[in-house]
Design goal:
This protein is an alpha+beta fold. The chain has helices spanning about 5-40, 45-50, 90-95, 140-175, 180-215, 225-235, 240-245, 260-280, 310-315, 325-330, 335-345, 380-400, and strands at about 55-60, 65-70, 100-110, 120-125, 130-140, 220-225, 245-250, 255-260, 285-295, 295-300, 350-355, 360-370. It folds into 3 domains: about 50-140, PAS domain (Beta-Lactamase); about 140-215, Orthogonal Bundle (Helix Hairpins); about 220-400, Heat Shock Protein 90. The protein has 12 helices and 12 strands. The radius of gyration is 36 Å and the shape is elongated.
Length: about 400
């Protein structure tokens, strides 16, 4: 019997069996890899380095909601590696992309341990496999606040402008009706002039506040003598103080300097003086003093007026807010003065503090970074003389009225 066909048959059977075994091994390896992929939480190459360099909060989350790795800013939202996502909406967002794709939602996050720390975020989840999802969280709280401020500013401005514009319109109609009565015409014309002045003041302060809040709203910064700032502010409000029978008193240290915009600082200090005079009783005193505290210059304006309640003190720096609305409107107040003071001080790297007690008066303090004095200029000497002259003139008039 010829052995050649048997050998060929054995060879064919061996090849078939070998191919079958190989196919089974390949299928087993693929199944194993698929199973590993479905259960693996191994991060893709480079993901950890990318997360470490991100400015936004971002993390990789497994199927059970546990954070595998997180970017440093994630800690501000209470998200840390090895912990479970606290926020139920974020967990739901991650589950929604488990089968693939991406999803984005705007969510308000309140940390359980800090109930007042509420943040509005834009969260985007993307699948990175059957077991892992990438969650990127962008904090939009500040953007929301700025948008709300713009909306409120436009609404408040429109409301405030309606009052003087409406008054001018009505008074113009009244003048037309009283054309044959010269006395009435003069009275209405005087009121129109007052409303126009109020409208001009309001418009000017709105423009000042808008400049302070814009990115390039200030002029070039340079060395500014606080003596000159105070002298100019006092000089600009001497007439108001005389009319209100309020004495202006200047004290404290001299020769201090800051880095900033002189005109903006003069306006800010002037607003504090105007408010102090406005809310002070006749015969009282408004003091403005300067103190150096290490590297900080403190400009304090103190009055003996009606004071501010605790509830009002928390809101007095808001735009258009008036602690005494009726009195402010009667005297032409715009509700923007203290807001301008706050923004002007902040733009100079400082802060504003307030102390007040109802019936005892108030003290507003602007704290600004101090710089070393440049070479002494004649202008600063003139400023000192101007301040002393204004203070002496006011004191003499006050003594004469008392006598």
């Amino acid at each position: 019997m010829d052995a050649t066909p048997l050998a060929l048959l054995a060879l064919v059977l061996g090849a078939v069996i070998g191919a079958g075994v190989t196919a089974m091994i390949v299928a087993a390896v693929r199944a194993r890899r698929t199973a590993q992929a479905q259960t693996s939480t191994v991060l893709p190459d480079g993901l950890t380095a990318v997360l470490a360099s991100m400015d936004d909060a971002a993390c990789a989350v497994d199927a059970s909601g546990v954070v595998v790795v997180a970017s440093p800013p994630s800690a501000r939202l209470g998200i840390q590696a090895g912990t479970t996502l606290e926020n139920t909406e974020l967990r739901r967002l991650v589950r929604s992309v488990r089968d693939g794709g991406t999803a984005t939602e705007t969510i308000r996050i309140t940390r359980e341990r800090i109930s007042q720390d509420s943040r509005l975020v834009s969260a985007r989840a993307s699948a990175m496999g059957p077991r892992l999802s990438l969650l990127v969280i962008r904090d939009v709280t500040e953007q929301e606040r700025l948008d709300q401020m713009r909306t409120d500013f436009v609404a408040n401005t429109s409301h405030e402008l309606k009052t003087p514009v409406g008054a001018v319109t009505l008074l113009a109609e009244a003048i037309e009706s009283a054309a044959d009565d010269p006395e009435q015409v003069r009275a209405f014309a005087s009121r129109i002039s007052d409303e126009a002045a109020r409208l001009g003041q309001l418009t000017g302060r709105i423009m000042s506040l808008s400049r302070l809040q814009s990115a390039d709203g200030l002029g070039e910064f340079g060395p500014v003598a606080i003596d000159e700032v105070i002298a100019s502010a006092v000089d600009a409000h001497t007439v108001q103080a005389d009319s209100a029978a309020v004495e202006l008193s200047r004290g404290g240290e001299r020769g201090t300097w800051v880095h900033g915009d002189a005109q903006v600082l003069i306006e800010a200090v002037g607003n504090l003086l105007a408010n102090a005079i406005l809310y002070s009783p006749r015969g009282s005193r408004v003091g403005i003093g300067v103190k150096v505290d290490d590297d900080v210059v403190e400009i304090a304006v103190t009055d003996q007026g009606i004071g501010i309640s605790d509830a009002d003190r928390a809101r007095i720096f808001e735009r258009f807010y008036r602690a005494d609305d009726a009195r402010s409107r009667r005297t032409g107040g715009t509700g923007l003065g203290l807001s301008i003071v706050k923004h002007a001080t902040q733009r100079h790297g400082g802060e504003v503090r307030v102390w007040s007690r109802p019936g005892r008066g108030s003290t507003f303090t602007m704290r600004l970074p101090r710089i070393d004095a440049p070479q002494q200029s004649p202008l600063s000497k003139r400023a000192r003389k101007k301040t002393d002259k204004v203070q002496s003139k006011t004191a003499k008039k006050r003594r004469k009225e008392t006598a």
